[in-house]
Batch of 4 targets.
Target 1
Amino acid sequence: MKEAVLYKKSKNKAVICQACKWYCNIPNGFTGLCGIRLNKNGKLYLLTHSQPAIIAIDPIEKKPFFHFLPSTQILSIGTYGCNFGCEFCQNWELSQTPKLIRIKALQNKLSPSKTSRLIKEFIDNNSYRYTPKKALTDALKYEVPSIAFTYNEPTIFAEYALNIMKLAKKYNIRGVFVSSGYESKETLNLLDKYIDAYNIDLKGATEKFYIRYTHTHIKHVLETIEEIFSRKKWLEITTLLIPNLNASKKDIRFIARFIKNLSPNIPWHISSFYPHYKLRDIPPTPLKTLIKAYEIGKEEGLNYVYTGNIPNTDTESTYCPKCGELLIRRNGYNVELKNINLNKGICKKCGFKIAGVWK
């Protein structure tokens, strides 16, 4: 547990958390909506600082990033807690457990201080001790060129990510966020020199979907994506298509047009849903739905559209937007560099500059 940076004091020992767009007003003894930012006597503490729940070396394509240091490994770090409540969450044991502990405590009429202790005890007993210095040591040991803050929502542990990247940047190691897009401007400012790339989940196309299935608001996500793009960070977008909920042609076209209006060079990852958490009665997304979304993305003028979670080499691979040459072949996380000059990021056949961060 370490004192947070992203907050300001309020009345009666309350604090206003500034990590995300909820701007939770947290009374003394309580945690914020995410479950891991605790007000203790008028100071805000991050319960998961130096205590991640998961640490892994992954292919960067797993995040997914296809145009940022492709075919490299990345150190991935995630903690407990989340500021979203997605009913289809694939990592709900990580993201939702602190909130589930709080709900059960309320049902049992436990005090705020007892509830916070239970959350802290759970995190302490189920997390690794992993200091920023240890993260740097591992990054250097495994010779990874980048570190990902991922698995749960990294916005809520921004100070921990910052302290890792302050060390990592001295060795030219890059930082990436895999996020749902609720970063506050305060967080984006704090991380501006340290996070190089973002993959943002644009989970749907309507406020109705966001409220019902993520318990958040779409306008804040769209604003965050626009803000990240304006800061000239490398940006990729991911959408999990859920049958009958966010996978209509109208929804798909809205997202494709939103991305195109920012830039046709932003890669868009369209992923297949599998039954999980609270949506176990919905079938997996058919491949034909992904292919149709892929075609709509191309129709709307996006240069780089990819399908995911269902093996399909043709729509996972990168082609030159100018001449159509196969540049990078992908089959799951197996990556074969074909006709791309990674040093210059250009198509070997026609010399077209391919958008991305290649070295």
Target 2
Amino acid sequence: MSRIVFEKHNHIAILTLNQPEQRNSISEIEVVEEFIDSLKLVDEDPQLRCLIITGAGSAFSSGGNIKHMLNKEGMFAGEANDIRENYAKVIQRIPQALHNVNIPTIAAVNGPAFGAGCDLAMYCDMRIASHKASFAESFIKVGLIPGDGGAWILPRIAGFGRAAEMAFTGDAISAQQAYDWGMLNKLVEDDKLMDEAMALAKRIVKNPPQALRATKQLMRSGTTLPLDSLLQMSAAIQANLHQTHDHFEAVTALIEKRYPDYKGE
């Protein structure tokens, strides 16, 4: 059975964490390899315009495998220097790869998202959750820090004060509280989660694929670049987009009052 299930629905990809008996933990090297391979498939497919990530079973992801921590197995094996290298080679590859995916990403959070699972949801561009979801930056509960980059992404999503509360207490918050804190785009009934995620994805993929990828690149760069650098980058990207078939098609379709037919060219 695949640890990661990868599906395509026209221009939309769905990636499902598929170890429900382990609550979709993501600290095993095999899981990380499959996850990274799936993201590579997404990046290499010019037909894809949006990615949805969700979990099988009752959990989105429990993050690190607690039994492996206890038994010092897998990425938690060895002395301090070994574990430091393991983090770089295993779990830290997920936020780096997900951050660099070149199309919009949606987390469809179906249940608890704890530790690295919480951060995985935060690294997506958008989040839709069911009422069964909950979120915890729970590393402190096992005497650890967010080793997967959570200290970088969570303050950007929840704000520093709320991220600090989550990280310092390790307590879980409900989906409703996450929505109230601005961490979610939408909160939906449990049986409507994937329908709502697909509906959002379909609204996104109606747009020109080159412009979508460029917008994603620009927004990610905007989290670290100063304004003058971002403006220079924007001008360079815009100049290229003005030369594309899809830009001409979009403008023409608006004038002719018809639906555009984008080619990704």
Target 3
Amino acid sequence: MLQFVLKRLGVMLLTILCLTFVVFFLTNLYPNLERLAKTQGNNRMTAEQVESWLDGRGYNRNVFVKYGEWLGVVPGWTNEINGVPSGRCKPITGDVETAPSYCGVLQGYLGESTVFREFVSKIINIRLGLTGWLMFAAFGLMVPAALIIGVLAGMREGGKLDRSLSTFAIATSATPEYVSGVLFIVIFASSAGGLKWFKGSSTSAMDDINFGNFTLPVLTIALYGVGYIARMTRASMAEVMTSQYIRTARLKGVSFRGVVLKHALRNALIAPFTVIMLQFPFLLTGVVIVETLFNYKGFGWALVQAASNNDIELLLGLSIVAVIVVLLTQLISDIGYMFLNPRIRVS
């Protein structure tokens, strides 16, 4: 087990390096850097002025050197801008002389946002915390509901209840968040729908979460995942119910309820466990849509702002967090699957 975990951690590290370099390379293409210079400087800047702006801030250098600085394995650049000493690490202490030589991911420094004028790490901590509440609430609703629907549908495959619940699961998993979100707003939060039960904007939930301002985004995220997990649970439950040991238990006189609770349920939940853990990557993409739709300024909202405003440092910081979250959930799902299923062994 330990060897397996170490190998997976090594693969995760290599994957993180590769993916972050790809994102770093794409964000540091010259058109993006030119747009950044004109956004931060002047839209009427000439080509020579753009080059001077980029040279003074260390952008016009080898991409591998810049990536090494961002990682924190290469000393940060230093230069003079309009006669004032500057450098990559200057924002940490406010002075080039007292600033550390290395300032990157390994040192816990992700740069400074060019739009929000704050440290990227501070922005991520705030936005990720807000998204954490949203994902926690969505998971708390999504997982129990999906498991109940899937188990009930799979208990009696082909019955009326199975067909009804399966139709609901297919319909929800086929409805993207931007469609269900708009429908929820129109029906439950606008005067056009006639049912103004909730708020169409969740901005106030950033300071004070309540039933009115937090229900619709939670429902929007949970609805899509419910259908997917329920379908996997139903398929697993239906397969288990046709197993030989289930038939043997029924022949011995065990009640149907006893067969389901004592024999079928645990084995049926092994496959859905992996699916549930893999919902984290889908939720990360889902919150981008939902947070933008409901104006809830969490991780997804910050990602949209960073991309639309060409905020390179913030975009890189959010990207590495997203990559780490996805890879960690995959590792946890693999380890949990082995504990749930004793037949799985790591050679």
Target 4
Amino acid sequence: MLKRVFITVWKFFLGGEGMSFRTGKYLGEAMLVGAATGFVVVAFRYLIEFGRTVLLEGIGHHYALSRMPDGAAIGRMFSVDALLDPHRLILVVLPAAGALAGHLLLRHFRRMDLARGTDSAIRAYHQNGGYLPSMSIPLKSVASVLTVASGGSAGYEGPVTLVSAACGSAIARSMRLDVRARRILMAAGLAGGISALFQAPLAGAIFGFEIFYSSSDIEYETVLPSFVASAISYTIFACFFGWDPLFKMPPAAFDSGLRLLPYFFLAVVIVFGVRLYISIFRTMELRFGEAPMPGWVKVSLGGLATGIIGYFFPDILGTSYSVIQACFTAGHSELFENYGPLTITCFVCFFFMKAAATAFTVTSGGSGGVFAPAIVCGGTLGAAVGLFLARILPAEVGINPAAFALVGMAGFIASAIRIPLTAIVMVAEISGNHQLLLPAMWVCGIAFWLNNDWSLYRSQVHCRESSPVHS
């Protein structure tokens, strides 16, 4: 009797044949995907920290250059002595060397056309039945760490989404599941990867069923598996790295409906910023694509251009998470003593430099994602708008530039990557601030609507009817 009950329960969770309860189908497999993804992201995180310690901080001394704690450091960043610092000169060539090494690694395996991780995963969902080669897990991890940890301006979420999706695809193949199940588990892997990397379990789960379309459509059949995989993956990751949010932000409340008007202005600015960001990215993509030169030359030139920008603005190298933390202190303190007080001009300059450096790194063939750079660009624009409105509006309005930075991040990724639900939840989870959900909803809705048909991911299709999966 007990054996029969056990078999029945097991078939229910694993979606065994003959079960009419479709709600429980593939949840057991999703648990396996979440566990595998969690441990893979943990290993990837250790690899990231090792690579950054050895390359960007060890060889390039990036940490010392971008964070000078003594008050006398103000203005030193652009002094003659600082610009001629040998460590500063290393930053010019280090991103090119790392990107070239990552490119040669992937080039050695000619089947690995995986320079853009999330785009490749989305394409696999729509066109390849959720199939991703298992070799992408180690190769993409090492190539991306070589690129970003050496100073390439990109994010780790691109390789993480690809590696996590490959985990789901590999588990489905090993269990001899059909194509539909493989797609579902691949999406669950996407959810688990984002959940662990950004320490945002709910946002990661939503990402797993929202990322595939540029409209407001979602993949309904991946909803529950994404939630299960996201929860398990995040739990495993947090057991190693803690349960705290990714960033720290001072308290920022929203207690007046009239403040939605300034946030409307922010949404409009974000729309123009997204279009400029995507235009820069597409222009560089076209230029590198048409250039009559070998791939290793292109990726070297892109890395060299990134290094030149990083020579003057070291904080745009790598993930630039230090810039996000600076946005959360906008109007409160002077986090970057080496640049002096953070002003509107400073944040706008960070936006343009980060957008250009990311375009050089990724479109030239460097291995990295564009999700994290979009968050940085949204934060800098939001902080600049917040400082501007605080200057021109009466103090009674109570403009908080840090709040505008957080909401700007949400609006930017909602508009540029077409994931409004993920954006609203993610900025709350990565900052630990859930009091700005209303303005985040307002800005994300407006920016998503006004920026229709603009997306960083070419593999997204407009709606379910446009996907080969459902056509």
